[in-house]
Amino acid sequence: MQLEDRVAIVTGAGQGIGAAVARAYVREGARVAIVDMNAEAAERLAGEIGQAGGQAIGIGCNVADRGQVAGMAEQVVKAWGRVDILVNNAGITRPAMLDKMSAEQWDQVLAVHLTGSYNCLQAVVGGMIERNYGRIIFVTSTAGVLGTIGQINYSAAKAGILGMTKSCAKELARYNITANAIAPGAATPMTNTIRTDERFKDKYLERIPMRRWAEPEEIAPVFVFFASAAAGYVTGQVLAADGGMTIY
């Protein structure tokens, strides 16, 4: 198993890609903290994994709240002694055209994606530095690479995560800590509008060479790779699991 005895935190893991990643990590031998703002969803998935013989705990946490993040990280360390892998996956959307977007919509999205990722990173990186080991995986988006209409807040946040990934990789490489990012295509409940709205779905599909939507389960193996020994000499990289959308 590629992640045997590793301890992972996966944020935004109550559904979608995060849930698929949590399941994949457990199958590969990791103990996983399933973190989500929806505590019920996190605990339910942890219970399902436990019934199947895996090790997981569900924790309700708003990653934009620094105090909640600190408490979450302490709970994981208390349970399993350390954190080896952090997957910063939590995200929200608040779509609106640029001229209609409110300050609240802007702030909410950046608070979860950017500040939330930073909060989680700071909560665990000290222990990783002490142990001279860590795997940090950020989740960006094709929107952060290409931009998108009606979500300047989301695109800006995801583009910011690219800079965070590269800076983190440069700063932490000396401690045997890698930092990489994954840019998935539309594969989650958060992107249901794009996938189902007649105004958007055909135009979006035309931009994907594979001409189909992704499923969370086919994105999860990329997260396994970045968390595993196979990616021990890979850092500061962005891998697009998007059906070829960002080919250029």
Describe the structure.
- The protein is an alpha/beta fold and 248 residues long.
- It is 48% helix and 15% strand.
- It has helices at 16-27, 39-51, 66-80, 103-131, 142-146, 152-172, 192-196, 201-206, 216-227; strands spanning 7-11, 31-36, 56-60, 85-88, 134-139, 177-184, 238-241.
- Helix 4 links the parallel strand 4 and strand 5 (134-139).
- The radius of gyration is 17 Å and the shape is globular.
- The N and C termini lie far apart (35 Å).
- The mean pLDDT is 91.
The total beta strand count reads 7
Major sheet strand order:
3-2-1-4-5-6-7
Shape: globular
Could you estimate the helical fraction of the residues in percent?
A: 40-55%
Work out the radius of gyration. 17 Å
The average pLDDT score comes to 91
Q: Which band does the percent of strand residues land in?
A: 15-25%
Uncertain segments are none
Structural class: alpha/beta
**Helical segment count:** 9
**What pattern of helices and strands is seen along the backbone?**
EHEHEHEHEHHEHHHE
